[in-house]
Design goal:
Elements lengths: L2 H13 L3 H18 L5 E7 H5 L8 E8 L17 H16 L6 E4 L4 E4 L10 E9 L6 E5 L4 E5 L1 H8 L4 H18 L9 H11 L6 H18 L19 H20 L4 H9 L13 H10 L21 E4 L2 E4 L1
Parallel strand pairs: 2-5
Antiparallel strand pairs: 1-2, 3-4, 4-5, 5-6, 6-7, 8-9
Length: 341
């Protein structure tokens, strides 16, 4: 194993979800699903998102799932029925979930997110209090997938969250393991900005597209970043892998997104090119995972020059200078420049 893989594993040890909150998120989602199964006209429930795909990172956030309704009970609901919008049915499901969840979690509350009821539990585990987002969905008369709510616009939108889980958890065990690890690393990289550039779904789609069987984690991460940067630079779209939803959208401008991807890709390439030099790999990866990897301290002449640029006084003895070399004029820093006195 080279240094790049080793240091990426050190990053993983910092970002992987803790077992206790992760277990609690699963328990809470299953509780919500069991209650939703009793809703009038319920057909079945499902798991989706990071919990189903095994790509949660620390801290554990929301567990995603959904309730699919039997259309025979709701002939007026949705685009394939009478056109009734989703706000009312989402509120009715929330009215069932809230009191039932409070029998187990007395402080729980049910509100709404973009896609349906959102349950908060008011019982932290290791400082984390996972929520549950439950989509209320309808089957589609034509085409695959489901109609799911957009409660921000009070409209229905086509999607296939179940197919996404099937695709993103497909492949051999080693292929799935590498994909999961890379997705987690990509999520941690993306969250280092106050304004993340990409949705978790977008990063997962790219990992599913670009990682080939047999790739190691470091090469797979480098490949995803390189291929994604090229796609964004070319202005090409990222289609929904299920073929149901519109193209996956960036969260920031294209040029800014391309720059982030390109700089990370270049740093990964540099790390892999110097894979036998731990300091070189640390330096490169600190440009990708600045919150998790510290670049090695400067050494040699570069380190001495860095000392000269610092605010603290530095003696020639500290720099190892003697004789004529010790005749260094005093300096004072002004911004990025220095002026002899």
């Amino acid at each position: 194993m080279g240094h790049t893989e080793t240091i990426l594993n050190e990053v993983r040890s910092q970002i992987d979800a803790q077992p206790e909150p992760l277990k609690e998120a699963r328990v809470r989602l299953e509780l919500a699903r069991s209650i939703a199964d009793t809703f009038h006209g319920a057909r079945y429930t499902y798991r989706s998102g990071s919990l189903a795909q095994h790509t949660f990172i620390h801290p554990v956030g929301d567990g995603d799932g959904g309730l699919v309704l039997d259309r025979r009970f709701y002939p007026e609901l949705g685009p394939d029925g009478g056109g009734q919008t989703p706000a009312k049915i989402a509120a009715e499901l929330c009215a069932l979930l809230g009191p039932a969840v409070r029998e187990v979690y007395p402080g729980a509350r049910c509100g709404t997110s973009k896609r349906g009821p959102k349950i908060s539990f008011a019982r932290p585990v290791n400082g984390q209090d996972p929520t549950v987002d439950l989509v209320v969905a309808l089957t589609r008369k034509e085409g695959s997938g489901l109609w799911i709510p957009n409660l921000h616009t009070n409209r229905w939108e086509a999607s296939d969250p179940e197919k996404h889980v099937e695709l993103f958890t497909s492949g051999s065990e080693s292929h799935k393991r590498t994909r999961r690890r890379v997705v987690r690393l990509l999520k941690a990289w993306n969250k280092q900005w106050d304004e993340p550039g990409f949705s978790s779904h977008n990063l997962t789609v790219w990992a599913w597209e670009f990682i080939e069987p047999g790739m190691g984690m470091a090469v797979a991460l480098s490949t995803v970043l390189t291929q994604a940067a090229a796609r964004v630079r070319a202005g090409d779209a990222t289609p929904d892998p299920a073929g149901v939803s519109p193209n996956v959208r960036l969260l920031i401008g294209r040029s800014q997104a391309e720059k982030r991807l390109r700089m990370a890709a270049e740093a990964l390439t540099e790390a892999l090119e110097h894979d036998d030099d731990r300091e070189a790999v640390l330096t490169a990866l600190s440009r990708v995972f600045r919150h998790y990897v510290q670049a090695p301290a400067a050494s040699g002449l570069a380190g001495k020059a860095a000392l000269l640029r610092g605010a603290a006084p530095v003696s020639t003895a500290m720099l190892g200078l003697a004789g004529p070399a010790a005749a260094v004029p005093a300096t004072r820093a002004y911004g990025d420049q220095e002026y002899g006195k």
